[in-house]
Write a structure and sequence with these properties.
3-stranded antiparallel beta sheet
Length: 592
């Protein structure tokens, strides 16, 4: 097998092979035992190519060379070049010439993009990292040039775009607040919401007063979150801030990068002390769900002060039926209390088939094996097998809770080929309160990722007093036919959807009935969309009241114009309150 194929061979492919080999025995239990035996006693680790993550200056040099090719004056793909330089920094050893060279090259990017402060920071980092004396004159000249350019800018009171207004990128998002006073014990939830329970819906969130379109009723901080691997050379692994020109590396792995020493220390305390030796292999063999499950378990360990015995005792005594995220007093809740709201999230274990359950157990075994082999958890588990069993149970539990409870985090990014902005995922997070919201293919609320990683719930259809709030799990009647929606929901979430859209077989968007213009007035959704595509906050602020008024006036559903206005409302909110990628401001410099 070539190195390239080895890189692509993952845990799922190995499980499929072992499952097929073991299916000669019809009993699921026997198959499960056979797979675990093979995982523990046969060279499966070799098949997965599991290995220690080590710094590699030769690899760093190759990555820097690729960055240089993209930086070339005839290419000028500066953003892509920066990613290669960052990866070079991650692979280089501390104090090596290779790291100093990569920092210096990153300073060239900053100078070309007129980010003179960042240019000077990288020059300082280069000198701290054993930048070669033979090239010192070149670095000193760039430093002098950057200081002069920065002084000119300060004197002229200009920004880095020569005074050109760039409302698309540099406007700070407006702060979003709850539309009502918060619950006394839940500062993140409006006092009109309450958790109810019924035979048909289980636990669900309802309102005790009529809600209008645009009302903000929840703003929740995640228990833990996970930066997607594709952004590790762009964003801080801890705070997720986009800081590609100033990222610094973890000194013990080749994956995590941070915007500051402070974020590095916080990450180490909360999760990275356990992830550091295994994170590269986790991303190489798993998709984001198993990696997020590992992050959840590790974050739980940190919530218990890394005291695994205390954690085991707490969970053994925990009465899961009494844990209620809506009745808990979040003002005085301990980290252990907060984790308990994550611990009890629905796993759908009882409705998963044997193969599904076994493949998640298999992933849990692999993750636990790596944690025991390479981290401080190994000796603890060797001394106390009960703790090892607890960790396995938690990994297995969250391999099942993550696919049905976690939420993606988004930002706004510019697509040059389409010449428009759109939402892009950058992370996944665990939100115990949001997880209480049931699904509908015709939702009456929408979620909005705020710049600090919190998630806001905003009403998108009028909800009467006593009505339930319905989220959408990614299957909307405007975009998918009923058969496809129900199939996907059953496959991932294990329930037959009986929402209003499915029960009434609502059409897809372009087959929806049109609003009676004589009764409700005319609204030109196409022209509004054309104006919002420009991503101008002032325009979004101007159009927002018009959309809110229209949606609050029409209580019937579904109509083509109503569904279009819901999407336009979301776009307005995204422009005003979400983070917009700063890298878009540099596109003008990236053309050869």
């Amino acid at each position: 097998m070539s190195n390239q194929l080895e890189e692509k061979f993952g845990a799922w492919e190995l499980f499929e092979e072992l499952w097929e080999e073991s299916m000669k025995d019809d009993a699921i239990v026997a198959v499960s035992q056979a797979i675990r035996y093979k995982l523990l006693n046969e060279p499966c680790k070799d098949r997965l190519n599991l290995r220690q993550d080590v710094k590699d200056n030769a690899k760093a040099r190759d990555l820097r060379t690729k960055g240089n090719e993209l930086f070339h004056p005839k290419v000028k793909r500066y953003i892509e070049a920066t990613k290669y330089y960052n990866e070079s920094i991650s692979f280089s050893t501390k104090g090596s010439e290779e790291r100093g060279m990569a920092y210096s090259n990153r300073s060239m990017i900053c100078y070309a993009l007129r980010q003179y402060d960042d240019c000077l920071k990288n020059i300082a980092l280069a000198r701290e990292s054993n930048y070669p004396e033979r090239l010192a004159v070149k670095l000193a000249q760039r430093e002098a040039d950057a200081k002069r350019a920065l002084q000119v800018e300060n004197n002229n009171n200009q920004d880095s775009t020569d005074g050109q207004s760039d409302t698309n990128c540099i406007t700070e998002p407006k702060e979003l607040k709850l539309s009502y006073d918060s619950l006394e014990t839940l500062p993140q939830v409006a006092n009109c919401l309450e958790l109810r329970e019924s035979k048909d819906f289980g636990r669900f969130v309802a309102t005790n007063k009529s809600l209008k379109v645009g009302d903000v009723v929840i703003i929740e901080k995640p228990f833990c979150n996970l930066l997607l691997d594709t952004y590790r050379c762009i964003r801080c692994d801890f705070c997720h801030r986009e800081s590609m020109f100033t990222l610094i590396p973890c000194e013990n792995c080749t994956v995590a990068m941070y915007c500051s020493e402070e974020c590095m220390e916080k990450a180490h305390a909360q999760y990275h002390r356990y992830e550091c030796p295994i994170i590269r292999d986790l991303w190489r063999i798993f998709t984001k769900i198993p990696v997020l499950a590992v992050r959840t378990v590790i974050s739980a360990i940190a919530a218990f002060g890394h005291n695994l015995s205390a954690m085991k005792d707490y969970l053994e005594e925990l009465n899961e039926s009494q844990v209620n995220a809506f009745t808990m007093d979040w003002r005085t809740a301990t980290p252990q209390d907060i984790y308990s709201t994550v611990h009890v999230l629905e796993s759908n274990h009882a409705v998963r088939d044997g193969k599904d359950r076994e493949h998640r157990r298999f992933f849990a075994y692999i993750a636990l094996s790596m944690l025991m082999d390479r981290t401080e958890l190994g000796p603890v588990c060797d001394e106390n097998p009960e703790i090892q069993e607890m960790l396995f149970d938690l990994l297995e539990r969250h391999m099942q809770t993550c696919p049905v409870n976690m939420h993606s985090l988004y930002y706004m990014d510019y697509h040059p080929k389409r010449k428009e902005y759109d939402m892009e995922k950058y992370a996944s997070g665990c939100f115990p309160l949001l997880s209480m919201l049931n699904h509908s293919c015709a939702p009456n609320m929408t979620r909005l990722t705020l710049p600090d990683g919190r998630c806001a719930v905003i009403i998108s259809r009028p909800i009467p007093e006593g009505g339930q709030l319905y989220d959408n799990y990614g299957m909307h009647h405007c975009l998918m036919a009923r058969t496809e929606r129900r199939s996907d929901l059953m496959k991932q979430y294990k329930f037959p959807c009986k929402c209003e859209a499915c029960e009434n077989n609502y059409p897809m968007l372009f087959n929806l009935p049109r609003v009676d213009f004589y009764e409700h007035g005319m609204i030109d959704v196409h022209s509004i969309h054309a104006e919002l595509v420009m991503h101008q906050p002032k325009k979004a602020e101007e159009l927002l009241p018009k959309l809110l008024g229209y949606l609050n006036k029409i209580t019937q559903y579904p109509y083509f114009e109503v569904c279009c206005c819901q999407e336009l409302l979301l776009r307005c909110l995204e422009i005003l309150h979400m983070y917009t990628s700063k890298s878009t401001r540099y596109l003008r410099y990236c053309k050869p």
